[in-house]
Design a protein that fits this description.
Strand content: 35-45%
CATH architecture: Beta Barrel
Largest sheet: 8 strands, antiparallel, barrel
Shape: globular
Number of domains: 1
Order of helices and strands: HEEEEEHEEE
């Protein structure tokens, strides 16, 4: 009985650990290319459940929060003026939820995605591709 309990506990701990990073995102550097005109490509480095977004000379550090097997949010400490306001923009933000990234297809060189809202998954904000860079 004691062995069964230990095995069950070990299985649960392993499952919790696997719920963190999905195998979709491999550690390394990627170029993010958005299909929407007017947006420049930028770099991003994934390290386990952390990321570093490189835009020009600026680097933004943050955490990856997985919502499902193929959907995640990139969290950072940059203050969002919309969430701190009391106007219509905040009401819309609260009803739509945070922006999230849904992985559409994967291959050895990266993955294609769309950006949507947590509370309104039927709305596509933009689409793009994470292109894995060689070391």
């Amino acid at each position: 009985m004691k062995v069964l309990l230990q095995l069950t506990l070990l299985f649960l701990l392993a499952s919790l650990n696997l719920a963190g990073q999905s195998d979709i995102i491999k550690n390394g550097k990627y170029i993010v290319h958005l299909k929407t005109n007017g947006y420049s490509d930028y770099g991003i480095v994934f390290r386990n459940d952390s990321y570093y977004k490189i835009i020009g000379n600026d680097t933004i550090k943050g955490q990856i929060k997985w919502l499902s097997k193929n959907t995640f949010i990139l969290l950072d400490k940059i203050k969002n003026p919309v969430t701190d306001s009391t106007d219509l923009a905040k009401i819309l933000h609260d009803s739509f939820g945070e922006k999230c990234i849904e992985v559409m297809t994967t291959d050895k060189g990266g993955f294609k995605f769309r950006t949507t809202y947590v509370g309104q998954l039927h709305i596509t904000i933009n689409e793009g591709e994470f292109i894995k860079q060689k070391k």
